[in-house]
Structure formats: structure tokens, C-alpha cells
Amino acid sequence: MKKNGFTLVELLAVIVILAIILVIAVPKISDTIDNAKRGSMASSVKMIAAAAEREKMVQETLGSTFTDTTCTGEWANLDASQFSACSVTFDGDTATVTLTGADAGKFPKWTCAGTRSSITSAKSTTAAPTCQN
Prior knowledge:
By secondary structure, this protein is of the alpha+beta class. The chain is 41% helix and 21% strand.
């Protein structure tokens, strides 16, 4: 008698092997995605800090004072759908930015703070990863 298909045991063996591969691969993929999000948020903090420092220098050169401490100006170029809060403080000419992710955005309830050269603190109000560099 000629065999034209796979037996039930062979199909079950393939399914078990695929399940084992998935159990190994899915956590690694999730970690990679979380690391990319952390890096993205840290990069946003650094770029906003650099932009705030430039804007402050421009304002002072023009004889004005920098007053936008909530990142609402065009200089911040902040996507309001991704971030619920942003604040800028200055220590001399160095800007420190604190950025909080929007609940419905890519960074739900993540908070990241730092300057253009480093991320100084990070926390999360959920079990989600935080923004450390």
C-alpha cells in the first residue's frame, strides 16, 4: 500500500516543534520591541532638550526670555498623541526635560527625564519598561 500523506504522529511532532520555537522566540521579540521603544523615548528627551537650549539661546539673543516650559512651541515638535506631558527646566544653559507618554500612545504612562547628553531618571507607573539609557 502506497503512503500519500503524513501520519498523525508526524503532524503532531511538527506542531510540538513549532510550539517550542514560539515559546523561545516570542519573549525575545517582545524584549527587542521594548528596547526600541525605550531608545525612542530617550532620544525624544535628548532632542527636545537640545531644541530647548537652542530656543533659549535664540530668545536671549533677541532680548527676550524663554518662557515655554511645557514644550508647546514649534521648537519642541512634540506629537501630542504620543505624549501627555512635557516640562523643561534649566540649570544655567542646560535643559532638563521630563516627558510622559500618553495612555493611548506608544509609551503608556512611561516617564523619562534627562538632558541632551544623558538620561538621568526614569520611572513607570505601570509594569511597562522604563526609559533608561
